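Consider the following assembly input.
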Amino acid sequence: MDAVRIGLIGAGRIGKIHGETIARRVEAARLAAVADIYRPAAEELAARLNAPRAAADYRHLLDDKEIDAIVIASASDTHAQIIEEAASAGKDIFCEKPIDYDLARIDRALAAVRQAGVKLQVGFNRRFDANFRKVREMVAAGKIGRPHILRITSRDPAPPPIEYVKVSGGLFLDMTIHDFDMARFLVGSEVRELYATGAVMIDPAIGEAGDIDTAIITLTFDNGVIGAIDNSRRAVYGYDQRVELFGSEGMVAVSNNLPDTHTYANGDGVHASLPLYFFLERYLDSYIAELSAFVEAITADREPPVTGEDGRVPVLLGLAAQLSLREKRPVALAELSA
Amino acid sequence: MDAVRIGLIGAGRIGKIHGETIARRVEAARLAAVADIYRPAAEELAARLNAPRAAADYRHLLDDKEIDAIVIASASDTHAQIIEEAASAGKDIFCEKPIDYDLARIDRALAAVRQAGVKLQVGFNRRFDANFRKVREMVAAGKIGRPHILRITSRDPAPPPIEYVKVSGGLFLDMTIHDFDMARFLVGSEVRELYATGAVMIDPAIGEAGDIDTAIITLTFDNGVIGAIDNSRRAVYGYDQRVELFGSEGMVAVSNNLPDTHTYANGDGVHASLPLYFFLERYLDSYIAELSAFVEAITADREPPVTGEDGRVPVLLGLAAQLSLREKRPVALAELSA
Amino acid sequence: MDAVRIGLIGAGRIGKIHGETIARRVEAARLAAVADIYRPAAEELAARLNAPRAAADYRHLLDDKEIDAIVIASASDTHAQIIEEAASAGKDIFCEKPIDYDLARIDRALAAVRQAGVKLQVGFNRRFDANFRKVREMVAAGKIGRPHILRITSRDPAPPPIEYVKVSGGLFLDMTIHDFDMARFLVGSEVRELYATGAVMIDPAIGEAGDIDTAIITLTFDNGVIGAIDNSRRAVYGYDQRVELFGSEGMVAVSNNLPDTHTYANGDGVHASLPLYFFLERYLDSYIAELSAFVEAITADREPPVTGEDGRVPVLLGLAAQLSLREKRPVALAELSA
Amino acid sequence: MDAVRIGLIGAGRIGKIHGETIARRVEAARLAAVADIYRPAAEELAARLNAPRAAADYRHLLDDKEIDAIVIASASDTHAQIIEEAASAGKDIFCEKPIDYDLARIDRALAAVRQAGVKLQVGFNRRFDANFRKVREMVAAGKIGRPHILRITSRDPAPPPIEYVKVSGGLFLDMTIHDFDMARFLVGSEVRELYATGAVMIDPAIGEAGDIDTAIITLTFDNGVIGAIDNSRRAVYGYDQRVELFGSEGMVAVSNNLPDTHTYANGDGVHASLPLYFFLERYLDSYIAELSAFVEAITADREPPVTGEDGRVPVLLGLAAQLSLREKRPVALAELSA
């Protein structure tokens, strides 16, 4: 088959990563065009990556017969709309998370995708991280027997700017959403009920913006597994991304990736490197792997590995966590999906 | 000062450990007598450790003017009664956990101790474990700044016999009680509210006995810290005792003690030893350290490092966890202590 | 400055890696042409990487005015000859190790480079590995004080084919040569004397080919440091590449890179992943980094980070090790360079 | 059988440890008497450990019919003489290393032991360390296949006082002797040849005393294994005792024991504890285990696990290393034993 011709929408930080991946790392893909509402950004990225076209309006890409698929890396509140339009245009779609924060809006977008019969993959890149994939593989292979307890530690090195916090959807939808996805992915079952506790410990401004910066969410899954996620917006030692799954026959855990393996011993102790600083460093390979998988799904004409439903459920979990925190009680997911 | 003359009540498994510690490891102590309702056990232990006296009735020890202090290692349901009598007899008291499972009963025992003006130390030995002590020291020294998140993993290698489960007081009072104590000790603040979730995953017989074998308990402390304890009655890889405390300036964690440091690499992977099998192996040094501390508290005439209140609160937390699990809601500690 | 236009000579395994790096990973470079004595290989690689020209005869590249620099990845016995010709043609040169196994031949090539005033970098890629670079940085920063003891463990996952062994120059020149380079790089001083011991332990056919497969080489440096390198042609657990430098104020060590950070605990023990399999996996990033550094040296017009002398000395050390092994005695480097 | 009645000769640092072990840790032994040329030391230790007798002259212990076995912990230069006399007196003997530094003197002592038919165990306590024992067990069980390469790192936290250095026998006989024993123990074969290199790097006063403080010794064993030991008299990070054995089917390595398992992460890195400070801390359990084994050998009437020959060979290796260093050449052990 010929290379998949991809139009990239959004030339910001994550758009640049996806663009570079498409142009240089995925043999079976070609970067056909870049769109960004700030046109110079689109042009600059297109030029650097030898993409033949650039546009301010993403609709030019949707109308382009020479484009097979769309990668959506624009602002979050444009995702659902672009998904619908791209589906109508018959393009396969890769969309950064979240699809939207409104369930009805998500459902409309997913309906459009279904109706058009195009493929949709949502950008939960961590599923493609070598560590988490290894955990999933071992669990799926029965290495830990029947899973009992899940533990996820997910801490950022620094909180985002307060202006971002205000429009982020809140900790649960902006940050924990990745952990909710990871929880479903690793356990292989749906969350039935959760209980969220949280507080403002890092920056009062976050509280004034109506959000929290520290949380623990307890999960109960349909298959009986219980789990706890802990989140912090600021770990002074850097990006802390660990997972542990314990079961009847064993336990598997993964810890942080380090920039090097050195240990240094002096009179004060034994010292090692801090984790890779943040998601761009830690998850770089997973950004490449998720787009490779997307392109493979197109060329092999099979279901993408992270579906629209996979994009929807973590939002549902985030909303449930918000409700639990607000009402100080466990929340059954059935309450929200009813 | 002369050596502290100690009478040991209970010559079972833990009694033997305490007896050996007193007789051989604590310079400032002497094992003056051993009592056990099964007299041959008392006599055998006394003979082996060169203790001059043995008795079936512990009251002989309380009446003995040559005995300064009592170590209570008898059945749990005798603890409160013996504490009261020993206090009346003017003996300093070291009592294995729990004092009792009934708060009113505990309060009567503590009142007796206060009234008699004797010392009481409760056997939360894990506080004397080198790992956990290190965490506490670092937290107290401000190394992690203001604490934010506590994580405790506490898993046994195998469930106790079902007959024991039936009289154990249940997972929260039998097993989690140690983790509740550890949580208070490490965080240095009281639990204000908790939420418990749990299930029977290991053995249906445990469920038939009215208990659970797997649990996660979320804690909120007076000082704002949030934490999660996870428990399992059976980790196939052995006794899993880990703690992590995360704060504004850093994180400190401790993991399991191993019998050796070997790593073995072959074509299948890199392999290391399992943790020390169970509490007798893992916490042996802490049993010695707690009795040393008790004897020191007597000789220096100061407050023992684990007080009667320290014995009472974990029971309160266990009862709160039972209530939370039963009613599927967060429980404020104030509800129970009111 | 414009991009550096590079001609690649050799389209085999390492040539492909360098070609891909130049074409896709080094912004400031362009892959201008590929030569290979087997012309279809040159054409295929050029086509895949969008290089405008392909040739069977490397001299076409040397004659090409549109080419600024040459990367030599052809058979080892062609290196010195091509260096001389490329120098005469005024091209900057990156040459895979070794320059040659004959010191006189090396010296002629280096003289040609000096006379032409072109740049020459030798492909000791491990210097660009994040781990080893970290060790060098810490040593250079004085973190370990004055270095005392160097330890290098360098073991391959499997011996090369016996046909390769026969023409490899032997263990010391084929394999240890990298460790000799690392030793000089890390210690920052020249080897004054060495003592080599070795044996055939893995495959008698290696011995029949006149080589050994297992060795320990003890080094004494001009600055007083003593060190030991141990080599094996077959570690069943994979590529084992570790280094330790011990000094008056501390010690720094690096170990193997793993494909993931998982640990798995079951009833048999705690298990982790094997190291990345071999040099292509372990040192991939360093191949990219060394070519980036070469291109930077050209664009900034400065000395390349691995010089012709750096290419010469490890060969000298390899020859000294052969002599030491043969004569069963320590050999001073002065004996050979005299 | 009745408890073995042991007379302890030498009430210094190591004598105190052995005394305490006999009196309190080995059920089947009894401390019958303590002798020390400084009589108050003998009396004080005897009093503290409830040993019935104390003496200045060790011959009183040899004459005592109530004593079954002798533990020699006196000054090194008295060992051989006391062994001979104790053998004549029919006592079983545990002797601290070294028997002597003079081979002829050792041989006379061993002959006396043989003639008397008594048991002799030499105090190479590290064989009883859990780590090294594990390595030996795995090697003996064939886990690494045929051994190829041995690596021993053995570094002290601080050099001894210069007065001690002068009478110590030198680095090889005082410090490396333990590593020589470990090498034989782990590999299970005799050293055929060695090559020693070393220098004064830590303290010129050590050089003025005719000794070195840093060394690497390369070993070739009868079974073909090659190995390297590296020694330093001062590791600023503490007592560094590591071993690695590599073979055709795998590798096993052990590292240092730590006082706790904590890791602390802050903005500077991840930090862990230093190793246990020195041999008393690191090898405490092994001192207990070696005396238990000695007593067991007596009660079960079997060969002690560390024989007179095991005491002799490391001295031979130390002398060979001295010769190698002096003459700057590899030395075959056959040269010395001829």
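The CA atoms of residues 198 and 260 of chain B lie 34 Å apart. Ask yourself how this observation constrains the way the partners meet.
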